[in-house]
Structures are given as C-alpha cells and as structure tokens.
Amino acid sequence: MQPYLVSFVSRKREEILEKWDGQLKAIREENYLDSISDSVYENTNQTFMNYIVSMVNLGSAEAKVKISELADEYIQSGWPLAYFTQGLQAFRRVIIDVYSSNSANMEEFMDVFYELEEWTSGIINQLVSDYSGSWENIFEMQKLSLLELSAPLIPVFEGVTVMPLIGTIDTARAKLIMENLLEGVIEHRSQVVLIDITGVPVVDTMVAHHVIQASEAVRLVGSTCILVGIRPEIAQTIVNLGIDLSEFPTKSTLKKGIETAFELVNKKVVDL
C-alpha cells in the first residue's frame, strides 16, 4: 500500500479494529460458525485482524504469501474459506468508511479505494486459488484411494477368489478391475474367480462388455471366471440387450457360485 494509507491505518488502528470486529461477528452468523465457542471465535478474530493490519505495509506479493500461511493453518482445522474472503472484504469496507469520514478530498478518496481494491482482491484471489488447489489435490487422492478399494480380489479358499463389485462401472474403473483381477489371479494362484455383480445397480452393454473382457482375460491366464449375482431384472436386461454371456458360467447368487467353484477345483463342503 501507499505510505500515506499505511500511516492512516496505523493512526486509526483502534477505530478500524473496533468496527471490523463488529463485521466479523456478523460473518459468523452467515457461515454457520455457531458451533465454535465465543472465546475461540474472538481469539481468531483478534489474530486475523492484527495479522492483516500488520501486513498493510507489505506489497501485494508478500501479503499473498503471508495470508496463505495463516489461512492454511485455520482451513486445515475446519474454518471455511468464506471467513477469510469475507473478512478481507469487511476490512476494505471499514477502511473506506473510516477514511471517508476523515477526508473530504474526493480524488484522494478514490485513490484509496482503488489501492485497497487492488490489494485485497489480490489476496482474496490467491486464497481462493490456494484453497481450490488444495481441495483438488485432496479430491484426487481420495478418488485414487476409493478406486483402489473399489475392485478388491478376495481369496476365500485355496484356488478360489471373489471380486465383489459395488456401484457404477465406468471405463476408468473397468481398467482397474482388469488390472487387479489379473494381478490377483497370478498372486493367489486362483483356479476359479467369482465376479459378484450383486451390488452393481445397472448392467448395460458397456458394463457387460467390461465383464466379458475381464472374464476372457482370466481365461487366457489359465483360470475360470464365474459371474454371480444375476438378479432377475439384470437377467431380463441382458436378454433384452442381446448380450451374449454364454462363454462363461453364470449363477444367481454367490453361494451357488462358490458351490460350482468347489466342484471345479475338486472340493466339496461336508457337514460334520
């Protein structure tokens, strides 16, 4: 900021902080921060205000770095981004209000307005950019973690493994299913793999195509694939779509699929 504006903020510090504190309390109600205790909110307000006021003598680039460090700490602990962006907008309004009541020079007032606009907007844009980037990274990491968990291959008996599928199967997930399936078959030395689609809500041509590809890949590495979880409505859909599943066994339930798998590996369940 310009030296004269820095000097003004320093002289009117107490008045600015008092008015700004009132606006920050209004922000609390707008952003559903009622769960935060009065003492914690008040302490955060004081920290935030003192931090910003101490930064007015910094250039825009330095200020962006400083506020990002502060916001990072609080946002990670659950404070909304809106608290900081609206707080900075409130700071701008308060400075303009106090300045206008102490100066009648319109040209000087407009200079102050544009100076504050540029300074606060730069910081707010930086905050939004940092926050968005942080959440995009977290989202991508969570997405990858969910994908890794979305196609598990579970050994249930020697030579028999099960892959339960839940939810929609898209191209990215189908690729992961194929990779996990082939790696798991080799690792567990599976003779029979049961693909359980009980939890797949819709089986369309694309889903069936992916399942057929997976079963064919399993066959090529020397194992047998059984598709289980064929509910009546799914069976009807498969017939209506003209999908050919005759190349590998299908069973209505996982229980029946395991019984068939035991027969294929020359084992049986005996009641004691």
Give the CATH superfamily of the largest domain.
Globins
As a whole number of angstroms, the C-alpha radius of gyration is 31 Å
Overall number of strands = 5
Shape verdict: rod-shaped
The SS-based structural class is alpha/beta
**Reading side by side through the largest sheet, how are the strands ordered?**
1-2-3-4-5
- Ranges where pLDDT stays below 50 over 5 or more residues in a row are none
String of helices and strands: HHHHHHEEHEHEHEH
Q: What is the CATH top level name of the largest domain?
A: Mainly Alpha
Q: What does the main sheet amount to?
A: 5 strands, mixed
Q: Any idea of the CATH topology of the largest domain? A: Globin-like
Cα(first) to Cα(last) distance is 86 Å
Describe the oligomeric state of these chains in a short phrase.
Answer: single chain
Number of domains: 2
Q: Report the portion of residues in β strands.
A: 5-15%
User: What is the CATH architecture descriptor of the largest domain?
Assistant: Orthogonal Bundle
Q: What does the average pLDDT come to?
A: 80
Report the total helices: 10
**Helix fraction bin:** 55-70%
